[in-house]
């Protein structure tokens, strides 16, 4: 199941990478199938989250209300954009002309373009600030436990069935696959391991690169040493010691992989962006939007019946 | 010759037939395959290095049995009181007749060792948020259709891959992980009381608590002995009518009720679990009756956990228990006057929390096994000072 999820992620990642190619070809938007695929993924992923939250009818109604507020805000914002659109395009057009001539920009053209840029920015910031308030309202609807689920949610098509952690609603984040790899490494006879460990580690790193992209030669060498050290460590453990400490080592190793993949950096950047510019956090990202309204409206009907 | 599924697969691997299966699992082993290693090495690579097949004479004599004049033995451990002839393995698979004596096959050889949150028991009223050393040997005297651990509970302990864990080793493990409790769980601990008593006798002196998660299908005498060494019990009450009990676990309800009373009378901490299985035990009238019995015989402060069934083992075709059913059952129990009623296997849910019976505020907020907030101060509600039943220190 994990493999399937990973494969689907790879397909989606591939498709996302292909988007700039369509743009380069001059197409306005990606092919219809890809759009449908993306929408289907979003719907399923939202459903997984909603299933994992065990929302009450009252909570669902409140979330839908928050979404309606956001929609009104969006429409208001669009109106404001429309009101400045003509002047902005005019100012930018004149600026473009001046830049094309490359003989200096007249002061009035520069000032007008700057003013319009500021106006657009102000509308956008006001909208962000309002949206952020709506998100806060939405957060207040959820319990602490539900917030915890949202904060650890990773969008996915098929949520893992994990009895050890029954609350997981999103993509697998557990260390079982690494633990299984450790178990196989532990069970290799010493002579086989000593003779083959370079090959095993190289193959393992090849697999890793399939997921995270190519590593530099320096990174590869460092990873090889690190992986061998981890493998040696788990092999040296006694049975009981491995059973009790293996999961921790696997988690550490997994964290290291995430760091390598840049996931930690991405999360940090998102948080930083939210703090600096007041953008939406995880709750807003996952529970505000047309797909959420569509899914929750249907769920509410099901609950009532 | 009888051959279990596990033995069959093991046999295939040993013959080298399993190699393609194994190789499909791991890039590391694929690398080995490419290196052209002999099949024998790969067969070894596919196996656990844990011990199995301890010699039969290494196991000690069991307790709770009597020798019959005709050479057979009668096991008195559980209400089945089965009679066995020479070399026969018991119904629970943990005992065997060897040279005229009943021996226990589950001794110093757990098949599972884990570090678990105590809430997994479920024990919601014993030192919340702490980790326990969870141990299990193979074997069980029930045949529950939905067993999540059937691969170990329905196996003979000495035929599983097991750890060598005598009391000294268990002490080391406890110290290393700074655990103050051992939780006997996953399978049916009351079918290996000898091992539990051995470990408990040794670790209790070190200040370690022994907690037992059981189905409670055990005779009073061995249970009373276990009560001397264990401080807490989580008892799975499978249903509250005889027919459903037999259908679900192929055993009888009455001895389990007797066990609940025995544990309570011994003054041990007790939490009751009722897994609600659609169409088997989800009748609200019976649930109400059960709650009434629990309140009357065990007291209103005995925590009750309603568990959500998930399709497992022989009941894979049934749907999971609807949330509505779990919520109805919880409400029924609260209406009957039980003070601490929880939902299990459903999270996030308000039923994960502990509420003060006096002021009604959530004093422990949980997300499944995870503690989000604990407002119990010295065994009392942090808001109104009401004493909360449990072992908090």
Structure description:
The complex is a heterodimer of chains A (305) and B (393). Helices cover 81% and strands 0% of the residues of chain A. Chain A has helices at 2-24, 32-53, 57-101, 107-141, 144-151, 176-187, 190-212, 217-236, 239-261, 263-277, 282-287, 290-304. In chain A, helix 3 runs antiparallel to helix 4, helix 6 crosses helix 9 (239-261) and helix 7 (190-212) packs across helix 8. The longest helix of chain A has 45 residues, at 57-101. The model of chain A is unreliable at 1-5 and 15-21 (pLDDT under 50). The radius of gyration of chain B is 22 Å and the shape is globular. Residues 13-49 of chain B have low confidence and may be disordered. In chain B, helix 7 links the parallel strand 8 and strand 9 (209-214). Helices cover 29% and strands 20% of the residues of chain B. In chain B, helix 6 (167-176) packs across helix 7, helix 7 runs parallel beside helix 8 and helix 8 (220-229) runs parallel beside helix 10 (254-265). Chain B has three domains: 5-45, no CATH class; 56-104; 112-352, TIM Barrel (Alpha-Beta Barrel). Chain B has an eight-stranded mixed β-sheet with strand order 6-7-8-9-10-11-12-13. The A-B interface holds A 53-54, 143-146, 148-149, 161, 163, 165-167, 180-181, 183-189, 192, 196, 199-200, 202-204, 206-207, 239-241, 243-244, 247 and B 25-32, 34-35, 37, 41, 44-50, 113-115, 148, 163-165, 169, 172-173, 176-177, 310, 323, 345-350, 352, 365-368, 370, 372-373.
Structure characteristics:
A: 305 residues; mainly alpha; 12 helices; disordered N terminus; B: alpha/beta; TIM Barrel; 3 domains; 3-stranded antiparallel beta sheet; 18 strands
Brief synopsis:
The complex is a heterodimer of chains A (305) and B (393). Chain A is built from 12 helices and no strands.
């Amino acid at each position: 199941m994990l493999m399937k999820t990973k494969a689907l992620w790879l397909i989606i990642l591939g498709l996302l990478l292909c988007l700039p190619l369509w743009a380069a070809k001059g197409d306005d938007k990606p092919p219809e199938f890809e759009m449908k695929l993306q929408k289907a993924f979003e719907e399923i992923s939202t459903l997984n989250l909603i299933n994992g939250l065990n929302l009450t009818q009252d909570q669902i109604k409140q979330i839908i209300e928050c979404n309606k507020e956001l929609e009104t805000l969006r429409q208001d914002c669009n109106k404001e954009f429309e009101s400045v659109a003509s002047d902005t395009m005019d100012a930018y057009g004149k600026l473009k002309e001046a830049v094309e001539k490359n003989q200096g920009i007249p002061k009035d053209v520069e000032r007008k373009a700057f003013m319009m840029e500021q106006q657009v920015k102000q509308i956008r910031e006001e909208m962000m600030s309002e949206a952020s308030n709506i998100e806060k309202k939405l957060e207040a609807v959820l319990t602490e436990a539900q917030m915890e689920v949202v904060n650890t949610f990773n969008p996915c098509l098929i949520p893992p069935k994990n009895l050890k952690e029954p609350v997981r609603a999103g993509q697998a984040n557990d260390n079982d696959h690494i633990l299984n790899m450790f178990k196989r490494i532990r069970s290799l006879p010493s002579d086989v391991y000593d003779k083959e460990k370079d090959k095993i580690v190289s193959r393992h790193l090849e697999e890793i690169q399939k997921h995270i992209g190519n590593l530099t030669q320096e990174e590869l060498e460092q990873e090889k040493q690190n992986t061998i050290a981890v493998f040696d460590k788990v092999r040296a453990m006694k049975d009981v010691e491995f059973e009790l400490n293996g999961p921790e080592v696997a988690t550490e190793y997994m964290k290291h992989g995430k760091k390598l993949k840049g996931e930690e950096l991405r999360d940090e950047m998102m948080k930083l962006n939210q703090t600096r510019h007041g953008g939406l956090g995880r709750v807003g990202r996952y529970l505000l939007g047309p797909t959420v309204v569509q899914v929750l409206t249907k769920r509410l009907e099901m609950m009532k019946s | 010759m009888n051959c279990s599924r596990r033995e069959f697969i093991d046999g295939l691997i040993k013959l080298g037939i399993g190699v393609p299966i194994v190789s499909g699992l791991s890039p590391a082993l694929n690398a080995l395959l490419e290196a052209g290693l002999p099949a024998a090495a790969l067969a070894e690579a596919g196996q656990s290095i844990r011990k199995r097949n301890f010699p039969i004479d290494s196991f000690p004599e069991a307790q709770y049995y009597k020798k019959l004049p005709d050479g057979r033995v009668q096991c008195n451990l559980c209400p089945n009181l089965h009679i066995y002839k020479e070399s026969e393995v018991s119904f629970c698979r943990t005992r065997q007749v060897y040279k005229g004596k009943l021996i226990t096959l589950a001794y110093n050889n757990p098949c599972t060792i884990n570090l678990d949150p105590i809430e997994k028991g479920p024990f919601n009223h014993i030192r919340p948020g702490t980790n326990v050393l969870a141990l299990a040997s193979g074997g069980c005297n029930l045949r529950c259709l939905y067993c999540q651990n059937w691969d170990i509970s329905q196996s003979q302990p000495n035929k599983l891959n097991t750890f060598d864990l005598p009391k000294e080793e268990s002490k080391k493990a406890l110290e290393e992980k700074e655990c103050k409790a051992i939780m006997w769980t996953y399978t049916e601990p009351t079918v290996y009381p000898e091992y539990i008593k051995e470990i408990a006798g040794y670790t209790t002196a070190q200040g370690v608590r022994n907690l037992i998660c059981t189905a409670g299908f055990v005779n009073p005498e061995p249970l009373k002995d276990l009560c001397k060494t264990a401080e807490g019990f989580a008892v799975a009450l499978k249903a509250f009518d005889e027919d459903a009990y037999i259908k679900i676990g192929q055993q009888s309800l009455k001895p389990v009720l007797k066990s609940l009373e025995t544990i309570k009378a011994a003054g041990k901490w007790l939490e009751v679990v009722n897994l609600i299985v659609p169409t088997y035990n989800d009748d609200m009238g019976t649930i109400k009756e059960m709650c009434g019995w629990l309140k009357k015989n065990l007291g209103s402060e005995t925590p009750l956990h309603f568990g959500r069934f998930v399709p497992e083992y022989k009941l894979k075709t049934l749907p999971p228990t609807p949330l509505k059913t779990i919520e109805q059952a919880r409400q029924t129990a609260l209406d009957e006057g039980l003070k601490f009623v929880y939902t299990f296997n459903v999270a996030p849910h308000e039923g994960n929390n502990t509420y003060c019976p006096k002021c009604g505020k959530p004093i422990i907020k949980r997300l499944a096994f995870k503690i989000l907030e604990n407002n119990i101060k010295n065994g009392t509600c942090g808001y109104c000072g009401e004493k909360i039943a449990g072992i908090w220190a």
